[in-house]
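Hi R.,

Here's the chain you asked about this morning:
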Amino acid sequence: MSPGLAELAVEVLGPDAVVTETFGGLTAEVPPSDWIDALTRARVGLGCHFFDWLSAVDDGDDGFRVVAHVWSLDRGEGLIVSTRVPRAAPALATATPVYRGANWHERETHEMFGIDFVGHPNLVPLLLPDQFVGHPLRKDFVLAARAAKPWPGAKEPGESEHGAPSRRKTLPPGVPGPSWGPRPPGGDSP
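And the predicted structure, written out as tokens:
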């Protein structure tokens, strides 16, 4: 992280952006109404011309966090721009006018999380079959395999009706046999 990039990001992205440095990277949290403006400012004001990826995180009752990673090739640094949309009506303006590369990422995020990207030029399914119902990356999505057939394994040792199986005793990797290693004084020699 170059000195002053965080301060420059605060200045460029505006007063509503919460800019933090975490794990050697820079993150800017913006309100949904500032999403496109923040991405545009990151591109123009910070030189983040390269669009890396966009996805979402299901935060349960708090809604969905939409996250985009953009990169400045000149600076050799990236910026994560994120916002939160409500669970009841997850919608956000499309980033495709700012970054054309956002097209497929928004289609996948729409398909997997059910977030509508308003103004997207072609928000059609990308990965799932046409007859698929639901959004598989939402936390409330029921896995069909678990609904049709109970999970055969125990979650924790001892939870199954048979008890926990004993584990086979094994030697650490690289140990040739039980006679290998130092012997106590007066012990047998190999």
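The domain at 5-148 is CATH 3.30.460.80 (Beta Polymerase; domain 2).

Let me know if you need anything else.
M.
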